[in-house]
Amino acid sequence: MASKSFWSQQQDPDDPLSQALQPPLDESPEDRAARLRQQEDAIRVSKEIDDDIALARKAYERRKKAIKILLLGQAESGKSTTLKNFQLAFSPSHFHKERAAWKTIIQLNLIRNIKRLLEALQEEWESSLQTTTAASIAKGKGVAGRTPSSPGVRFSTSKLTDNHRRIRMRLSALLPIEDELMKKLLPDGGAANKDVCVRAGSGWKGIVSALSENTSTLGPVVPVKPLVSALKGSSNSRPNTADARFKDNPTAVLAACKDDIVTLWEDHIVQDVLKKHNMRLQDMPGFFLNDAGRIAAINYEATDDDIVRARVRTLGVEEHHFTMESGALPGTEWYIYDVGGSRSCRQHWIPFFDDVQAIIFLAPLAFNLTLEEDPKVNRLEDSITLWREVCSSALLAKTTLILFLNKMDILQATLAAGIRVVKYVPSYGDQPNDIANVTKYFRDKFRGYHKRLSPKARPFYWHETSVIDTRSTAAILVGGKSRVPIPASVAVRWE
Ligand SMILES: Nc1nc2c(ncn2[C@@H]2O[C@H](COP(=O)(O)OP(=O)(O)OP(=O)(O)O)[C@@H](O)[C@H]2O)c(=O)[nH]1
Ligand SMILES: [Mg+2]
């Protein structure tokens, strides 16, 4: 049966509301025109509201049918890296659309690496300062290659030379650029953090893409040569690259500094200083110094591998929505929730617990490391505590839990360096300190908690992996048989 519209219902002459809405008998033509206009506006607004409700209902239905996965784990466990692997494997066009944004992040990562390097040099100069005495002059001690002239003069005993000092001075031109970019990414402060940070929902990819596009359109006209000479010429004062032409343009300034960056990083005296200060920059998240010659080039484009390795600390919870282009279930809609893993972020996880089919829990077997936010807490112990909470949560009783024992490459390197598990985990005892035994030991611990603490029996899915390796991760994501209610089996092994 056709239903009457709201406005036609008002035409019933016996209805008191209709009577109240009737125009006055002496209505002037102007009043009538105004009344009709008001009616039209009201109909338009009502239609807009109906359309919005229909859209929201459609989005709700779509989301209900979509595959929803939550990535959990402590900070630096590899959640965002796993997300990038999902996008690369199943939604490459979405992944590639974000290339420009990632370029700026990788440049920022490189600048952070350089900042750490410069800090190490500064520490070396400061820790090797001595004051001359008449005796030291007699022995000819002083700055490398020079002899102090009179008692009471402070000098460095370090092997670092004046040339290192000059390079450091020139490279300090990169620091204001980093400050500017970080202010744009995180206006309420983030420069103090070790990593590049972004706040979920802040639209940071849009912000950095726009920056990257602006700077690449500037590409051909950016006066890199004058900038290089400006940098080379300034030996004692900080170069003026905070100049408006350059402050938003990491590409130009990095290109101008490229030779200095490569020279400094490859210098054996600098490497000795890093060793002496126990600084392994190569273990830092977002380490790109080995690729500085390529990344600091004026025509640099981020590769897939660079993007996967780039480090951005997640603050809050980011929802990523995409349609699977290839893989087991093409055309399906996916929602992946990527959370910040540091302790202060964990209270934001709970609202997402009742809406996801599967959780991928990332746990690097970092038995010898401590949390950045609380250096008293062992990372692996923290992961196990978190895993126990997730397993025992009543809200997650029906959720499939998939454990990724991640960063196996780092575990391999740690064991190869002779670091013994028993020193950090006494219960490991005198079992062999090799990858197979160590992995089995910890995997059994995770499995035991899963079995004992799950509110209802459920299968245990796990992978030993290095999600930084896109090929092997794609094999995990795409290759398996589906035995769980999520596509393409992100969980191929079970018990
Ligand atoms: N060597 C190695 N590095 C990895 C692996 N997985 C991730 N990483 C690196 O570890 C760092 C942290 O990874 P993310 O994916 O950003 O960690 P996250 O869990 O999202 O961290 P938060 O956002 O702080 O919670 C990045 O620099 C990654 O490149 C791995 O399997 N091996
Ligand atoms: Mg993250």
Note down, in words, how this protein is organized.
With 495 residues, the protein is α/β, with parallel strands linked by helices. Helices cover 48% and strands 9% of the residues. The chain is built from 20 helices and ten strands. Residues 1-6, 217-223, 234-242, 480-485 and 487-495 have low confidence and may be disordered.
**Can you count the helices?**
20
Mean of residue pLDDT? 82
Low-confidence stretches: 1-6, 217-223, 234-242, 480-485, 487-495
Estimate the helix proportion, in percent: 40-55%
What overall form do the CA principal axes indicate? globular
Could you state the order of secondary-structure elements as H and E? HHHEHHHEHEHHEHHHHHHEEEEHEHHHEH
Give the ligands present: guanosine-5'-triphosphate, magnesium ion
The CATH topology label of the largest domain is Rossmann fold
| Strand line-up of the largest beta sheet | 6-7-1-8-9-10
Binding site for GTP: 406-409
GO cellular component, one term: heterotrimeric G-protein complex
Keywords: GTP-binding, Magnesium, Metal-binding, Nucleotide-binding, Transducer
InterPro entries: Gprotein_alpha_su, GproteinA_insert, P-loop_NTPase
In short:
This protein is an alpha/beta fold. The protein has helices spanning 6-9, 16-21, 29-65, 79-90, 92-97, 99-127, 134-139, 162-171, 174-185, 204-218, 224-233, 250-266, 268-276, 292-295, 304-309, 379-392, 408-416, 421-424, 435-453, 470-479, and strands at 67-72, 129-131, 154-156, 197-199, 313-315, 317-323, 333-339, 358-362, 400-405, 461-464.
